[in-house]
Design a protein that fits this description.
The structure is a single chain. By secondary structure, the protein is α+β, with helices and mostly antiparallel strands. The protein folds into two domains: 21-70 and 108-408, Metal-dependent hydrolases (TIM Barrel, Alpha-Beta Barrel), CATH 3.20.20.140; 71-107, no CATH class. 24% of the residues lie in helices and 29% in strands. Strands 1, 2, 6, 7, 8, 9, 10, 11, 12, 15, 18, 20, 21 and 22 form a 14-stranded mixed sheet that branches. A three-stranded antiparallel sheet has the order 3-5-4, with no helix packed on it. It has a three-stranded antiparallel sheet with strand order 13-14-19, with no helix packed on it. Helix 2 runs parallel beside helix 4 (111-118). It starts with a helix and ends with a strand.
């Protein structure tokens, strides 16, 4: 009895030690396939990400989960993709039929059938997701059931309704889920003000690699990074709302033609520090802000000890790094005014705020950078900028970068 108890105790101690060891996992949370408007088969997409060193992938087609029976006509435009698919997976895996018009149809395999080909413990994980596509778009990650677009009289109401639907499903099912607002600047759909008062909003895309989403803004519209600083400042400094964490994603649609304006794989990702490669472990870590975003920079470590934030870069030969510590101090100017065009017409866009919001508080060069909070910061976040040009981006002069999540200052 004593021996058995000792064995059980040792097993429990070993299990606890293993669970305590967290590591970094790379993933993409925004991915499209032939289930909606992507241009490749889900298996081909999964294979690409696994082959390129990703650890997890969320398939997030528009207003659909990859479940049940779905047949697709092999049109002339899809013929090349179909031939690649057949060459890779063979006729024993692929299912085809002829329809009443004598067209070849191919069955799109649901996620439940594809898992067996790709998932491996501690190597690769597939997560069911949906891009809830309303007038604005949100990604529900690790959903169990489809969520229809909820609508709303205003953009803020629409966002709140859809966030609420994801959170309600998570509560009902007891399943860990995550929801993030997608590409605010795609077709200039959202403003910072649309998101300021949202309850349950914790994540939004600071960088979406689709070539037409306008992360950088323009002379009349705020960049998504500027929106992030406004949200953090106003929500933390004034309304005491939830913190907002930023994600970076591919928003992949195009897998055959690679160019800076296409929505290609491998352009932007998140790296999550979690104990296990499971949806629950990944989502828990992200809820705690233990992750970073990247378009090419790899971080060795992000650590907060006392009041000091330390960022360590995994350096590459011939590449140099500059880390900016960005934040807002208490006592900032809270005022704002609307943006007007050349004719004086007020635009529906993020208002103009003081440069007190989201200032560069300090800057360091090298692979290790530290910032010690002075005590008056509402938040501080770090952005690491590489000397290497981001050749995947359509934005002239853009450099590869990484973004850490904000550290909240003492109240």
């Amino acid at each position: 009895m004593l021996r058995a108890a000792l064995v059980l105790c040792l097993v429990a101690m070993t299990t606890a030690a293993v669970q305590a060891e967290a590591r970094w996992w790379k993933g993409n949370l925004h991915t499209h396939t032939f289930w909606s408007d992507g241009d490749d088969f889900p298996e081909m997409v999964m294979q690409w990400y696994k082959n390129h060193g990703y650890h997890f992938l969320a398939l997030s087609d528009h207003n659909v989960l990859s479940q049940g029976q779905r047949w697709m006509v092999v049109t002339d435009g899809r013929r090349a993709a179909f031939e690649k698919y057949r060459d890779r997976f063979g006729d024993r895996w692929i299912e085809t039929r002829q329809n009443e018009k004598d067209q070849t149809e191919v069955r799109l395999k649901p996620l439940s059938e594809c898992r067996c080909l790709f998932e491996e413990p501690n190597r690769f994980l597939l997560i069911q997701a949906e891009e809830i596509s309303d007038k604005a778009h949100l990604n529900g990650i690790n959903l169990l059931e489809l969520i229809a677009p909820q609508g709303g009289a205003t953009m803020a109401e629409l966002l709140q309704n859809n966030i609420g639907a994801v959170r309600a499903q998570a509560q009902k099912t007891g399943r860990s889920m995550l929801v993030h607002i997608n590409h605010p600047n795609f077709q200039w759909a959202l403003t910072a003000e649309d998101m300021l008062g949202l309850k349950g909003m914790v994540f939004f895309e600071v960088y979406n690699a689709h070539g037409y989403v306008n992360n950088e803004g323009n002379e009349l519209r705020a960049s998504t990074e500027r929106m992030w600083d406004i949200l953090l400042t106003k929500r933390l400094g004034e309304s005491k709302a939830e913190i907002v964490y930023a994600v970076a994603t591919d928003d992949t649609h195009n897998y055959h033609k690679f160019d800076p304006r296409a929505a290609n794989p491998g352009q932007a990702w998140v790296v999550v520090r979690a104990a296990q490669l499971t949806p629950e472990s990944i989502i828990r870590a992200m809820d705690a802000g233990d992750f970073y975003c990247s378009t090419g920079v790899t971080l060795k470590d992000i650590a907060v000890k006392g009041q000091t934030l330390t960022v360590t870069v995994a350096d590459e030969p011939g590449v140099t790094y500059t880390t900016q510590f960005i934040g807002t101090r208490r006592g900032y100017d809270p005022g704002s005014h609307p943006v007007k065009d050349a004719e004086g017409k007020e635009l529906r866009t993020t208002r103009l705020y003081s440069r007190d919001i989201g200032r560069v508080l300090a800057e360091e060069k090298g692979t290790t950078a530290r910032y010690t909070l002075k005590g008056d910061e509402i938040y501080v976040r770090a952005k690491v900028i590489s000397s290497r040009k981001n050749d995947k981006s359509h934005v002239p002069g853009e450099r590869e970068a990484a973004w850490t999540q904000p550290v909240v200052g003492r109240q």
